[in-house]
Design goal:
The chain is mainly beta. Helix content is 4%, strand content 50%. It has a domain at 32-92. It is built from one helix and four strands, in the order H-E-E-E-E. Strand 2 (38-49) and strand 3 form a beta hairpin. The longest helix has 4 residues, at 2-5. The radius of gyration is 17 Å and the shape is elongated.
Length: 92
């Protein structure tokens, strides 16, 4: 039965209940073609919860449908945290 094979996903007890502030800094950006439809970003995120600040390095890939329009739509967003003190969701 399918329900017996599913695992319950819970937040750890040290997971922040509320994120007070978040800053994202892009350190480098790479593109795979001249249209910039596929972009790889290297960055750092700082998350503040209850006076505690956590720094998280991340790598991110963004693919746009048509980057030539004024407001391009994202077709794909992939984020990989490199180092974190909380689960990855706190770093995004």
């Amino acid at each position: 039965m399918l329900n017996s094979t599913l695992l319950e996903i819970r937040r750890p007890s040290n997971y922040p209940s509320k994120i007070d502030a978040r800053e994202i800094h892009i350190i480098r950006a790479y593109t795979f073609d001249t249209s910039c439809a596929d972009v790889l970003l290297l960055g750092q995120s700082t998350v503040s919860t209850k006076g505690r600040h956590t720094l998280c390095d991340f790598t991110c890939r963004v693919v746009f449908e048509d980057p030539t329009v004024e407001m391009p739509k994202m077709k794909l967003l992939q984020i990989w945290p490199v180092g974190f003190a909380f689960p990855p969701l706190a770093c995004l």
